[in-house]
Amino acid sequence: DGCNGMLRNVRIAAIGPVTARAIEKRGFKVDIMPENATVEALVEEIITHMQSSSINPATK
Question: Largest CB tally within 10 Å, which of 19, 26, 48, 57?
Fold first, then answer.
């Protein structure tokens, strides 16, 4: 798919294992997935990931 190149620097989040499997089945890597499949847990996991990452989303 032509989108793969555009998505190489994108962090992909899945709300839970079912969504993660669907993403991975399409050839993408899930970078962020909370232990609990809730929106609140996903938001917290994204915040934690971004705070610990050297990537500054404002510069991308």
Answer: 19
Residue 3 tokens, joined: 């989108």
**Among 3, 10, 20, 11, CA closest to 49:** 11
pLDDT digits (tens, 9 = 90+) for 1-44: 566 677 778 899 999 999 999 999 999 999 999 999 999 999 99
- Beta-carbon contacts of residue 1 (< 8 Å; ≥ 6 apart): 27
CA angle, 45 then 50 then 51, to 5° = 100
- Other Cβ atoms closer than 10 A to 45: 19
Using CA atoms, how far apart are residues 13 and 36, in angstroms rounded to an integer?
A: 13
Q: What single-letter amino acid sits at 26?
A: R
**The two three-digit tokens of residue 48, written as one number:** 């934690």
